[in-house]
């Protein structure tokens, strides 16, 4: 019974499907991997540009997948891509987190303008920041339209799950990476989550998310998209589910134009971070690469040569868990890492 209460489900939903990681979080801080579940669909059929367009299809597929896999966790941390996410740096009094949220709520109702109404948001104080001459400290606001987030929450509840939080996918991925390895060099971290429809690009500095945006790119020379498969319950069947995201795409070769355009876009985003956001003193420390593409080693080599920074794409060694599940984790940690990081979100 205690084991069941300590189980959490990290769920990443993409335009092309979902992947879920069930973990047991023990009181001593250790994490045990329990189950891996994945399912794919054609882009736009269930989720389009980050928006849930077919809630009934998501509910049906998710409910069936979790049941077939024998997932016991009811508590869910959901990770969504960067579509619709807005970031703002505010300067507020050094207050506890809850009090900061109350202050921001008042600001949103009176003077703080966002490009949408009725936001859901969180606030994150910059670590180690000193107060300015007015006694204020920098705080990062992360906001999204409720109309974007609420349909996912409703769908999870319809599956008799208990959503505890909705996380930005980039934050979940960084949390997972830091679970296995600390930063090795000072500076900014560029995170790239690749899919068959493009890339989510995010920049962190000292754990604070400064930039996140969606870049629409076609990775393959010929237009090819994943084809949805029947729900696949457990290892080794889950391996086929993970491969389903890229099965059709593998019939085409990774486009050289895609590699060139991706590197160029990352250079532009990082220049924006350094010069527009006044972060010139921040070098590029490393690039974290994840996602559903099979060709991550090829992408990693191109990005490292072009941007002059180490690329990290295979982490996750030392994780304990079920013997039937661990081989799939070790084969494709980059595929599961964002969902794993969501499952680790603090209570």
Q: Give me the CATH architecture of the largest domain, please.
A: 2-Layer Sandwich
CATH topology of the largest domain: Nucleotidyltransferase, domain 5
User: How many structural domains?
Assistant: 2
Structural class: alpha/beta
The largest beta-sheet arranges its strands as: 10-6-1-2-3-16
**Beta strand count:** 16
Strand content: 25-35%
Low-confidence stretches: 223-237
Q: What is the radius of gyration computed over CA atoms, rounded to a whole number of angstroms?
A: 20 Å
Subunit organisation of the chains: single chain
Q: Number of helix segments?
A: 10
Percent range of helical residues:
25-40%
Overall, the morphology is globular
List the secondary-structure elements in sequence, H or E: HEEEEEHEEHEEHEHEEEHHEHEEHH
- End-to-end CA span: 19 Å
Q: What is the CATH superfamily of the largest domain?
A: ATPase, nucleotide binding domain
Note the main sheet.
Answer: 6 strands, mixed
Q: What's the rounded overall pLDDT mean?
A: 89
The CATH class of the largest domain is identified as: Alpha Beta
Pfam family, one: PilM_2
Organism: Calditerricola satsumensis
InterPro entries: ATPase_NBD (IPR043129), FtsA/MreB (IPR050696), PilM (IPR005883)
Protein name: Type IV pilus assembly protein PilM
Short key terms for the protein model shown above:
ATPase_NBD; single chain; alpha/beta; globular; 347 residues; Nucleotidyltransferase, domain 5; PilM; five-stranded mixed beta sheet; six-stranded mixed beta sheet; Type IV pilus assembly protein PilM; FtsA/MreB; 2 domains
């Amino acid at each position: 019974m205690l084991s069941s209460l300590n189980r959490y489900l990290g769920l990443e939903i993409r335009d092309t499907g979902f992947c879920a990681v069930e973990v047991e979080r023990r009181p001593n801080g250790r994490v045990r991997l329990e189950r891996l579940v994945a399912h794919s669909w054609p882009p736009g059929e269930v989720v389009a540009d980050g928006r849930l367009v077919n809630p009934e299809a998501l509910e049906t597929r998710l409910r069936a997948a979790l049941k077939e896999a024998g997932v016991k966790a009811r508590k869910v941390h959901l990770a969504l891509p960067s579509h619709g996410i807005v970031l703002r740096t505010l300067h507020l009094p050094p207050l506890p987190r809850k009090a900061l949220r109350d202050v921001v709520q008042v600001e949103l109702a009176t003077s703080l303008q966002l490009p949408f109404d009725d936001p859901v948001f969180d606030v994150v104080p910059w670590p180690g920041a000193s107060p300015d001459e007015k006694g204020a400290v920098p705080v990062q606001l992360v906001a999204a339209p409720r109309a974007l987030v609420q349909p996912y929450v409703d769908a999870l509840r319809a599956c008799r799950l208990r959503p505890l939080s909705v996380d930005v996918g980039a934050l979940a991925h960084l949390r997972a990476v830091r679970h296995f390895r600390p930063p090795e060099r000072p500076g900014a971290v560029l995170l790239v989550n690749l899919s068959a429809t493009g890339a989510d690009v995010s920049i962190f500095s000292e754990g604070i998310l400064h930039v996140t945006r969606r870049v629409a790119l076609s990775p393959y020379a010929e237009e090819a998209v994943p084809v949805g498969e029947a729900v696949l319950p457990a290892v080794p069947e889950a391996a086929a589910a993970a491969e389903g995201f890229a099965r059709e795409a593998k019939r085409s070769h990774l486009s050289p134009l895609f590699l060139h355009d991706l590197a160029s876009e990352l250079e532009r985003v990082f220049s924006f971070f350094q010069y527009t956001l006044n972060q010139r003193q921040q070098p590029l420390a490393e690039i974290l690469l994840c996602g559903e593409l099979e060709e991550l080693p090829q992408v990693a080599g191109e990005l490292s040569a072009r941007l002059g920074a180490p690329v990290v794409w295979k982490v996750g060694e030392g994780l304990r868990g079920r013997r039937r599940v661990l081989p799939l984790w070790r084969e494709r940690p980059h595929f599961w890492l964002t969902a794993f990081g969501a499952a680790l979100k603090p209570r």
